[in-house]
């Protein structure tokens, strides 16, 4: 059996596209929040995988009858939680092309276009944000596309950790301290634990209405000084541009000044608001970015794309 017979693929592909288009035509008729009970799907599906492949007609009927009722309809015009709809014709068709070409982009040789397209697009985005040349391939840096902000935070923490441990010895990992605010995404604390930072060494800076819920560089400085005096090693601070709860913006310049005095890594999590900083009237929210080590934002939250995180460093 040919797993990809061109004419059958064409027929089934049209059916899937029609199914999705119909879903969007009727999306307002669904309750935004699913009304199913936990464990509902196991009761509806067979106990084991089918031994004979089912036709696409049956599969799409199952999707309509069993999957659609269990969805929270993020793309609904009456969904107002977390972040905006990320669906668009360009996003869907771009992902279809990527799936169809099925590129394995391990390195340049495995598919030169994959590597070079990423380089070109990353520089486009960096230039649109007016990032310094140290973040661009055309300069001395570069960026990468990732699946989630969690990946970006983990990668930057690993880079910061290894750089510091090369200086002080790997046996001193227990002395490393990281810093974020009480508005910083929970991914920061989770990533810290994944890379080996002791939970007790994750400092959370309290925010207040006085600072518009942004991180205070003065409080950060006091925390760092206290840790240094206690024989610990300040490693990493995560500044946020557009916090999840309130869209607060941390002051990148003052935070960088404090961190650089102690040779710390500064990462900017601009997941929510980074895309908006392409607009000249919002660019000032990332003033000071030239002094940070890494910067990431979620393209899907403003560009109507599927889940894509852009990370520069």
Automatic annotation (TrEMBL):
GO terms for cellular component: cytoplasm. InterPro entries: Aromatic_deC, PyrdxlP-dep_de-COase, PyrdxlP-dep_Trfase, PyrdxlP-dep_Trfase_major. The modification N6-(pyridoxal phosphate)lysine is found at residue 301. Belongs to the group II decarboxylase family. The lineage of its organism: Eukaryota, Viridiplantae, Streptophyta, Embryophyta, Tracheophyta. The keyword Amino-acid biosynthesis does not apply. Keywords: Decarboxylase, Lyase, Pyridoxal phosphate. This is Uncharacterized protein. Gene3D superfamilies: dopa decarboxylase, N-terminal domain (1.20.1340.10), Type I PLP-dependent aspartate aminotransferase-like (Major domain) (3.40.640.10). One of its GO terms (biological process) is amino acid metabolic process. It holds the Pfam family Pyridoxal_deC. Its cofactor is pyridoxal 5'-phosphate. GO terms for molecular function: carboxy-lyase activity; pyridoxal phosphate binding.
């Amino acid at each position: 059996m040919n797993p990809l017979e061109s004419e059958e693929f064409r027929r089934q592909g049209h059916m899937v596209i029609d199914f999705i288009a119909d879903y969007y035509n009727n999306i307002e008729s669904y309750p935004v929040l699913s009304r199913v009970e936990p464990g509902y799907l196991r009761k509806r599906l067979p106990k084991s995988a089918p031994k004979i492949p089912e036709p696409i007609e049956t599969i799409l009927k199952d999707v309509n009858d069993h999957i659609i009722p269990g969805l929270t309809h993020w793309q609904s015009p009456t969904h107002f939680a977390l972040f905006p709809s990320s669906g668009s014709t360009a996003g869907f068709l771009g992902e279809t092309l990527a799936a169809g070409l099925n590129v394995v982009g391990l390195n340049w040789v495995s598919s030169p276009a994959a590597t070079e397209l990423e380089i070109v697009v990353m520089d486009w985005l960096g230039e649109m944000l007016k990032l310094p040349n140290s973040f661009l391939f055309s300069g001395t840096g570069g960026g990468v596309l990732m699946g989630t902000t969690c990946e970006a935070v983990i990668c930057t923490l690993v880079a910061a950790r290894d750089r510091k441990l090369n200086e002080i010895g790997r046996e001193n990992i227990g002395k490393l301290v990281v810093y974020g605010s009480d508005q910083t995404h929970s991914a920061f604390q989770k990533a810290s634990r994944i890379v080996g930072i002791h939970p007790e060494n994750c400092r959370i800076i309290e925010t207040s209405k006085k600072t518009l819920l942004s991180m205070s560089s003065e409080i950060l400085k006091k925390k760092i000084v206290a840790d240094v005096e206690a024989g610990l090693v300040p490693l990493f601070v995560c500044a946020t541009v557009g916090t999840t709860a309130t869209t607060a913006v941390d002051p990148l310049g003052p935070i960088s000044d404090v961190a650089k005095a102690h040779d710390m890594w500064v990462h900017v999590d601009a997941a929510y608001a980074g895309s908006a900083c392409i607009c000249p009237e919002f660019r000032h929210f990332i003033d000071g970015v030239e002094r940070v080590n890494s910067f990431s934002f979620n393209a899907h939250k403003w560009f109507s794309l599927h889940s894509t995180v852009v990370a520069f460093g």
